[in-house]
Amino acid sequence: MNLKELYQEIILEHGKNPRNLRKTDNFTRDAKGNNPLCGDNVHIYLKLNNNNKVEDISFEGSGCAITMASASIMTDLVRGKEEKEVKEIVTDFLNMIKEKDELSTQLLNEDEKTKLMCLSGVKQYPMRVKCATLSWHTLTSAMNNSQEIASTED
Description:
CATH architecture: Alpha-Beta Complex
Number of domains: 1
Low-confidence stretches: none
Order of helices and strands: HEEEHHHHE
């Protein structure tokens, strides 16, 4: 199996069977996100402990396979990370999906980086970049405790 096929398989698997698709009990922060051009919606639920470590994270929403896969992968990767680590991972992902070829963070292992890199192919399709980044912008809003709806049009 070549890398492109592996990436497609990961996206399809997470798109069809998203992880953490539920509402976190006793969440401490949350945020909603919307991609008005295609109608994708996500609602991120975040439970931070007293040390600002992600104790639990989940999402609800609807959208295309890329939106759902991205939210699923994101929630898997940031669980257990400290708030500052999450912000670094988000920044690195957004830079990679928009302009860089690789991820530079040292906070993820190789398997985790491969899961994120599977979304890198959307760079070729600007409208799909918005699908891949919606949940990440929404997570940033939740981390910042923002009450505004995160949008891909900002």
